[in-house]
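hey m, so remember when u said the tokens were messed up on ur end? i reran from scratch. heres the input so u can diff it against urs
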Amino acid sequence: MLKAVLLFLLGFALLIKGGDWFVDGATGIAHRFHLPELLIGATVVSIGTTLPEVMVSAQAALQHNSGISYGNAIGSIICNTSLIAALTIAVMPGKVNKKSLVLPASAFFAAAGIYSLIAYTLGRFDRWVGILFLVMFAVYMFLSVRQMKTQPAEEAGEEEEEKKELSLVMELVLLVAGAAAIAGGANLLVNNGTIIAAALGVPDSVIGLTMVALGTSLPELVTAITSLIKGHGALSLGNVIGANLFNIVLVSGMAITLSPFAVPAEKTLMGINSSLLVDIPVMLGVMAILCVPALKTGKLYRKQGILLLCIYAAFTLYQFLL
């Protein structure tokens, strides 16, 4: 027990320090090449903070544990949006760059639409679906890089210009070291949390939707908090939206390609698969609450954050109590 506690604390420390390094490296690169922070958050930072989900889902897929693979992806999207983004908005609502938001948000809803359609009509994810998602990931990265080249970053303020810049090599070192620390720290937390949940007799899909999803989303949470403290709210929002997209096209795509699986039916509500009745609709709903107002008005509102936090609390209670 003492060993588990020590490893948990070590994982938490790695997450905090890793998030600090990763944000410094990512924002430094964004400013150096005059790239929009939201796009950097939706690509480079998102890939780094999604590494824990990729590793956990791939490992679960190789072990033919479809409940963890499936629940981790959907649960992480719900957690990223209704907990992490919600906290960011509740603390610091404000304006967003609508143009930078269009690509990642559109790509997410396109991928989520395909994912949902297959879940409701076929009831299983075959290997071709995984390959399709991986192709979508590659296309999204290509479009993002092209957009970065054509869309100038917002002018940096005087305070930013006065800061001493790190060398490009140091920024890359911070980026890589931060990603490694984040991934390692998340793994330590997930492994211990999953063991505890399993000991309580919780179904694999519920573990994936809650414990594993929260554990693997801690990098996004740490990055969001670090970004807020450092005044990079756009980076935080872009990271959440990009990470949600990657949870479908990269995390699920990788898991499905390695080991195709059916939609888990371990839990039902009124005789209907709970995942189809609750999990997928909640995933789509919270992203709509986050993105639609931002795309229409170019603003995020505190009431959005509060509503999303309430949804996350209700969703978590439902998973464990019903």
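this time it looks ok to me. The radius of gyration is 19 Å. if urs says something different then somethings off w ur setup not the seq
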